[in-house]
Specification:
- There is one protein chain.
- The protein is of the alpha+beta class and 301 residues long.
- The chain has one domain.
- It contains ten helices and eleven strands.
- The strands form two sheets. Strands 1, 2, 3, 7, 8, 9, 10 and 11 form an eight-stranded antiparallel sheet that branches. A three-stranded antiparallel sheet has the order 4-6-5.
- Helix 1 packs across helix 5, helix 2 crosses helix 4 and helix 2 packs across helix 7.
């Protein structure tokens, strides 16, 4: 079952509806579900903190917190993010050719000039330090260890193993239910290695997404309390470090248009954020600069 998460209004008349699912989990227990918590999809970029944890276990030398944060990022190409990637590559002699990334186009349609401009460059930089051979292949040691880590956090050994696909950056991405995704992060708080990773994300929130990115805004608003990571196809993860609960939101159509507002709305209703603590614009603006409509969450309204 999916539910109506948000509506798009034009002239106060419903024009579009964003359907989706949300689930709140503590440990392996569903606290509340809005729609079917068993709905499965690919983990995409919300899994980066777990990939970073496994990568770090392969590396004997100390890695700066700032570089751990950028390894968990889906960066938007801000000067701070790009300079951090440059510092990281220089400090550890990471060559661009070692990154298993393509030179894709950015949101403006311009081809990237360097692999370090790719929004997954931080994750790939850490992985190439961890395993100098082809770390991107599913049979590589690091990718096999990531699957084992997922199974460990879920406290299960699935007979057929965890299903996977190929992510936009070329690495494996994993097919899990929303409940399982939330359990991964809730259970990770029992492991001190993750506390180091979450501390790095909290310390450098603008490295994770960037200005006006909802995951960065959440961590800026509640440092050392909430950890947030967005993913492609309408996926969002928010982890509450205090009560060890994790919220996963999936917008079924994969659109990012309503994801920020829906995420903020759930966090306010759960009292993880105060009303208005994060400022977002819900307006639809036409080519004349006029407000012609708005987006509004449906759940709890």
């Amino acid at each position: 079952m999916i539910i109506d998460l948000a509506k798009v209004y034009r002239n106060n008349l419903t024009e579009s509806i964003h359907y989706g699912i949300a689930v709140l989990v503590r440990g392996n227990t569903v606290i509340q579900s809005w729609g079917d918590s068993g709905f499965s999809c690919f983990t995409r970029s919300i899994i980066k903190p777990i990939q970073a944890k496994v990568s770090l276990s392969f590396i004997s030398e100390e890695i700066n917190e700032k570089y751990i944060a950028i390894a968990c990022a889906s960066h938007t190409g801000t000067p701070e993010q790009l300079s951090t990637l440059k510092e990281f590559s220089t400090a550890y002699k990471i060559e661009e050719k070692s990154l298993k990334l393509g030179l894709v186009k950015n949101s403006n349609g311009h081809k990237l000039g360097s692999k370090f401009e790719h929004n997954c460059a931080g994750k790939h930089s850490l992985m190439t330090l961890a395993e100098h051979n082809d770390y991107s292949k599913p049979e590589s040691k690091i990718q096999q260890e990531i699957i084992q880590e997922l199974q460990r956090l879920l406290n299960q050994q699935t007979p057929q193993g965890i299903l996977s696909g190929t992510d936009g950056c070329g690495l494996p991405t994993f097919y899990l239910s929303l409940k399982e995704m939330a359990s991964l992060f809730s259970n990770s708080l029992q492991d001190t290695d993750y506390k180091r990773i979450y501390a790095a994300m909290s310390k450098y929130p603008l490295l994770i997404g960037g200005p006006q990115q909802i995951d960065s805004l959440i961590m800026q608003a509640r440092p050392e309390e909430l950890i947030a990571k967005g993913g492609a196809e309408g996926l969002m993860m928010v982890l509450n470090l205090k009560n060890q609960e994790c919220l996963i939101i999936k917008i079924i159509d994969g659109s990012s248009r309503a994801k920020n507002l829906i995420t903020r709305h759930f966090l306010e209703q759960l009292n993880w954020l105060k009303s208005g603590e994060i400022s977002l614009d819900d307006s639809l603006i036409n080519s004349q600069g006029l407000k012609v409509g708005h987006i509004a969450p449906s759940v709890y309204s």
